[in-house]
């Protein structure tokens, strides 16, 4: 979103000092990363970078909650994916109006910072995230997920083939998507998912460690596409209360990807 809206480009450098302070409130990252561009920010999960481009800091104005929400919705993160299974739940994208109405509180910069890193009031499902990752991998086509690919008769003859259905397309330009794919590739090659670096054909991914608000519990996330140059599979792993994405979710993804790619 920040690339598309020209808030930053791939040459923008932000100094990740490990925290930023707004008023009397401090917002922390996982570590001090120093000077980072978008490639390193994604590869190493720089909260400070995304606080800045999402909520603004210093001379960067930031996207703000409305624009962030618009782009999350473009990637299908607030709607049912329409998968051919009953009981699907949709994610939730908060707005300042929603908070005023339901919480009787104003929307603060900290709310935007949390939203910028996928925390706070925001909710997404693993299936939604997998579909969004697929749109990044395939250059901008949000595809309706399917369980059924073909229907056969008792003799194995195909009587119906389910063709891919495009839910939306061209909502982010190709240059921006190419930058994100490269950053996800660097996540695997040298970043937080580098334990996948020797995967045949390469991959692009993003780790996540989501605070739950209950003690120090965190959900471990990892979403990935492979092979890198010609993606055939998208996989999203969520381990609830599992710890860090890099140490818990990535090894699970590795086992699945190795099995799939060796078939």
Q: Structural class, from secondary structure content?
A: alpha+beta
Order of helices and strands: EEEEHHHHHHEEEEHEEEH
User: Rg from C-alpha positions?
Assistant: 19 Å
CATH homolog superfamily of the largest domain: DD-peptidase/beta-lactamase superfamily
Give the termini separation. Answer: 36 Å
Mean pLDDT, nearest integer? Answer: 95
- Please report which band the strand proportion falls in: under 5%, 5-15%, 15-25%, 25-35%, 35-45% or over 45%: 15-25%
> Can you tell me the residue ranges where pLDDT is under 50 for at least 5 consecutive residues?
none
CATH class group of the largest domain:
Alpha Beta
Note the main sheet: 3 strands, antiparallel
Second CATH tier, the architecture of the largest domain: 3-Layer(aba) Sandwich
Pfam family, one: Transpeptidase
Organism: Candidatus Sungiibacteriota bacterium
Domain Penicillin-binding protein transpeptidase: 1-258
GO cellular component, one term: plasma membrane
């Amino acid at each position: 979103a920040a690339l598309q809206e020209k808030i930053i480009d791939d040459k923008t450098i932000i100094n990740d000092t490990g925290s930023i302070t707004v008023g009397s409130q401090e917002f922390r990252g996982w570590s001090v990363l120093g000077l980072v561009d978008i490639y390193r920010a994604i590869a190493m999960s720089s909260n400070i970078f995304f606080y800045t481009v999402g909520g603004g800091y210093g001379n960067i104005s930031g996207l703000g909650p409305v624009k962030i929400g618009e782009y999350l919705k473009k990637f299908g993160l607030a709607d049912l994916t329409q998968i051919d299974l009953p009981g699907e739940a949709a994610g939730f994208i908060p707005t300042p109006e929603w908070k005023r109405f339901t919480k009787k509180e104003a929307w603060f910069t900290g709310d935007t910072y949390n939203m910028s890193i996928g925390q706070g009031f925001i909710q997404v499902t693993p299936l939604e995230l997998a579909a969004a990752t697929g749109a990044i991998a395939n250059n901008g086509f949000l595809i309706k997920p399917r369980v059924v690919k073909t229907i056969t008769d008792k003799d194995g003859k195909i009587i119906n083939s389910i063709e891919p259905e495009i839910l939306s397309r061209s909502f982010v330009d190709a240059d921006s998507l190419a930058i994100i794919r490269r950053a996800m590739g660097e996540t695997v090659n040298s970043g937080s998912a580098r334990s996948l670096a020797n995967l045949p054909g390469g991959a692009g991914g993003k780790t996540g460690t989501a605070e739950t608000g209950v003690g120090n519990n965190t959900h471990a996330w990892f979403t990935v596409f492979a092979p890198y140059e010609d993606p055939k599979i998208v996989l999203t792993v969520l381990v609830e209360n599992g710890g860090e994405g890099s140490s818990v979710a990535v090894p699970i993804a590795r086992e699945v990807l190795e099995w799939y790619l060796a078939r």
